[in-house]
Every structure is written in C-alpha cells, then in structure tokens.
User: Which sequence fits this backbone?
C-alpha cells in the first residue's frame, strides 16, 4: 500500500513538517479488510524512501491530484513487474479515464464497500476493471490497522476520522465529486467512534473529518461520551455550526482546543460564487468571540482569486485575521479541481489554462483570472503568508487576547508552526517528532478563561446580506 509523495516534496515550497503531521489513515483503514495473515507493507513517501524493489502480488496506490503523475509512474513500474495494481482516491474518482490505463482495477468513491468486494473477487480471480461505490456506511467497519503505521514518523499519529463527507456543497470542494452517486455525509456509530478513541494512546487527537460538527446529534453524543476521557483535540467546523445551539461548548468540554474553519473570503459575492450560501447572514464576530471565550484556537482558511477579489484583498484579509486573533491561517489560490462544480463552470467559460496537475497545489494560478491578473494573484498570495506570519503580526494577533496564558499559547503555537523550520527539519531527521507531542499537548491544554473575550473591543463586522464582509 503506497501513498506517493505530493510533487511538493520536490518544490521549493516543500515543508517536511507539513507532511509529517498525519499518517496515511485511508490506506490503514482499507488494510483492515485484508486477512490477518496477509503480509502488508504500508509506505508513505512523504516520510520515507519507498522500497520499489519488491514484487508484491497486489499494489494499492492512493492518488491525489498533485501526486497523480508520480502515482501513475509507480503503478506502471509495478505492473511491468507483474503485480496487480489498484488505484483509488480523489483524483481517480474525478478522472477515472485518465487513471484506468495505469491500473488493473480502479476505485470510484470511498472504499469501505468496494475494497472488500474487490478483495473477495481478487482471491477468486474474477476481479473487475472498475469498482464504483454506491452503498455508503461506516457503521460496521473493522478496526483501522494502526499497527501498520510507523508512528515515530509523525507529529500527530493519533489522527482519526469518525464521519465521511460534509452536508454542504461548496463549488470548489472535492466532496461532491467524490461522493457522487450515493450518500455524501454519514457517521460512525457513536460507540464505535468512542471505542476507536479509547484505543489510541496518549492524550492528543486530531479529527480529520471535513466537518466534525456537521451532524449535531452525532457530535453531541460523541462529545458527551468523550467527557472525562482526558483528551485534547483539534478538528474542523463551519461558522454556522459554531453558532448553532451549544454544540461548541460541548466540544470544548470534551477537550476541543483548536478548530479549522473555512472562512474562504470576506466578500458576499465571492461566497455566492462559491455556493457557500449556508453561512450568509451569520454573526462571525460572535462565532470568534465564542471560540476564544472557550479557549479554542482558530485556524482560518482563505481562498484568493475568486472573481470579486481585487489587489487589496490580501492586506485586507491578513489585517482581519490578525485583528480577530486567528492563531494560524492557511491561504490558497483558487484551484478548480477536476470533477468539481467550479471546474465545470470554468471549463465551459474556457478559463482552464492547462492540465498539469503538479501545479494544482493551490499555490499556482491554473485558470484565467478576473479582477486580479495572474501575477498580482500569485504575488499577493505569497505576500499574505509572509505578512501574516511576520513576527510583528504574530505578536499583534497574540496580544488581542486578554488572558496572559492565552497570549502565550497563541504566540507559541503560531511561531512554533512557522518560524522554526530548521528545528523541525532536525527533529524529523533525528526521528524525534514523537517527543514533541507533550509540548503540543501542553500548548493545547485548557485555560480557564471567563473574562471579557478577544474581539469585544473590535469594530463589529456587519453581517447583513447587503454588506461586506461575510465569512463561512
Ligand atoms: S464546508 Fe468545507 S468540506 Fe463542506 S463542502 Fe464546503 S469546503 Fe467542502
């Protein structure tokens, strides 16, 4: 089982720590369907040199858009040696006709139903060229083969996924393409999710679910069950879900200490273009206030290059993020992934520039822009990163918090993530990532914070439908 490296591994943007965070959970999940006496080697090229001198009976390769060319090369290599090669994942689902010539079998959509069906066919020598997922459920899945994961290669070995998909339909998101033809949002049984959490050693967890708070009932039961388990965890949500009921308070009580939120854009029209209607008219200041008052750090995600963006969008976004004390930010250049609504729309308008998937990494402009020209977009994107992670802005954002412990935690997390690259590289080389986990846990530990929260002295954002800005 192979997770090939993204092309970024060879680009000047490559940050070893970014790809040493999470183990290949998807492959370890599929491995659980193999027999106990099957001899499985799970290799992740982001953290280890691949051994391609072997000649296994079966090779399973997970394909993302930016590792697609590398994945096809590996597939061709193993097929020449006589191995049976399977390709699956987001990119294969989006472009099956591109992947098929490199594989003996391809997999469309999630693998929980198709992979065991394939294994059965493979053992009986009647395998199909294509397996399409229609049945969607993760209620009866066997335990993930975490024993195949080389834990010491990762900063966050305890990553976990307890749902699949997301209830929303943003036009640039892969989600709809991947889950086409069946359910696009479903959950584990709460007891199974809690049992999986219980099996994980240590304290820290990272939920890689697209939207951990997407199903209120499931999330509420999960958080209730996690109370007293002495965990600290990170996960993703939308502003919408944070404002609804008291789910976020339950999450905080269960140990949530940081949340990833796709704000994406500060413009209503851009939100409409992206089909992020679900969050229009929400009070974003209130969501941020609520998160900070619960001691939950925020990782904001933003997309540049939507049609309403102008040359000021970069400074405007960074300034907003700093003022609102976002701990970290992830910036992206808008990227029309094949299979998405955005791709279809741009293709119809003749705006797709090329199909060099290596450059579909959200750091390059791969479509004809409007409003901003290509150079300005690229330059502005680079500038946003440099500016948000400048020492002065890390300091300024940290100082928006009132509680000294919160100021320190914010500063440590943001600076630690972006300002000590050589130290991370050294730790990775010396295989010491696991030793850093207690530091992360202590940065994420609870602060009892009841006083006036961050942002209460900031100008209020008008979130009416007519006014900007609005965020998802
Ligand atoms: S909310 Fe996030 S995961 Fe859900 S569809 Fe939108 S971008 Fe995708």
Assistant:
């Amino acid at each position: 089982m192979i997770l090939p490296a993204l092309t970024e591994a060879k680009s000047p943007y490559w940050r070893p720590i970014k790809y040493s965070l999470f183990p290949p959970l998807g492959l370890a999940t599929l491995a659980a369907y193999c027999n106990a006496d099957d001899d499985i080697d799970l290799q992740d090229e982001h953290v280890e040199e691949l051994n391609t001198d072997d000649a296994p009976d079966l090779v399973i390769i997970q394909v993302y858009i930016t590792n697609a060319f590398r994945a096809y090369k590996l597939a061709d290599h193993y097929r020449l040696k006589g191995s049976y090669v399977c390709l699956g994942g987001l990119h294969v689902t989006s472009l099956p006709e591109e992947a098929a010539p490199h594989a003996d079998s391809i997999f469309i959509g999630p693998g929980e139903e198709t992979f065991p069906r394939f294994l059965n066919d493979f053992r009986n020598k009647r395998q199909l060229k294509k397996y399409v997922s229609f049945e969607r459920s993760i209620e009866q899945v066997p335990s993930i083969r975490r024993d195949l994961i080389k834990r010491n290669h990762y900063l966050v070995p305890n990553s976990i996924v307890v749902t699949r998909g997301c209830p929303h339909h943003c036009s640039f998101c892969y989600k709809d393409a991947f889950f086409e033809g069946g359910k696009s949002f479903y959950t584990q049984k709460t007891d199974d999710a809690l049992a999986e959490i219980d099996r994980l050693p240590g304290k820290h967890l990272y939920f890689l679910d697209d939207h951990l708070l997407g199903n209120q009932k499931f999330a509420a039961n999960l958080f209730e069950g996690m109370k007293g388990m002495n965990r600290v965890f990170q996960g993703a949500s939308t502003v919408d879900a944070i404002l609804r009921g008291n789910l976020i308070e339950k999450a905080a009580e269960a140990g949530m200490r940081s949340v990833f939120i796709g704000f994406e854009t500060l413009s209503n029209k851009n939100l409409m273009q992206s089909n992020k209607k679900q969050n229009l008219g929400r009070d974003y200041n209130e969501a941020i206030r609520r998160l900070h008052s619960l001691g939950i750090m925020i990782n904001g995600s933003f997309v540049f290059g939507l049609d309403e963006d102008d040359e000021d969008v970069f400074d405007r976004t960074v300034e907003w993020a700093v003022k609102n004390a976002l701990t970290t930010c992830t910036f992206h250049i808008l990227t029309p992934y094949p299979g998405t609504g955005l791709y279809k729309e741009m293709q119809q308008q003749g705006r797709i520039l090329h199909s060099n998937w290596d450059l579909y990494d959200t750091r390059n402009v791969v479509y004809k822009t409007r409003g901003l020209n290509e150079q300005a977009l690229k330059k502005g994107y680079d500038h946003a990163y440099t500016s948000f992670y400048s020492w002065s802005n890390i300091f300024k954002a940290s100082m928006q918090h009132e509680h000294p412990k919160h100021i320190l935690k914010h500063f440590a997390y943001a600076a630690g993530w972006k300002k000590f690259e050589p130290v991370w590289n050294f730790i990775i080389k010396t295989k010491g990532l696991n030793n850093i986990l207690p530091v992360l846990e202590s940065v994420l530990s609870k602060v009892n914070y009841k006083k006036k929260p961050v942002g209460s002295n900031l100008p209020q954002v008008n979130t009416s439908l007519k006014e900007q800005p609005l965020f998802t």
In short: The chain is about 35% helix and 15% strand. Residues 166, 168-170, 173, 175, 210-211, 238, 262 surround iron/sulfur cluster (CB under 6 Å).
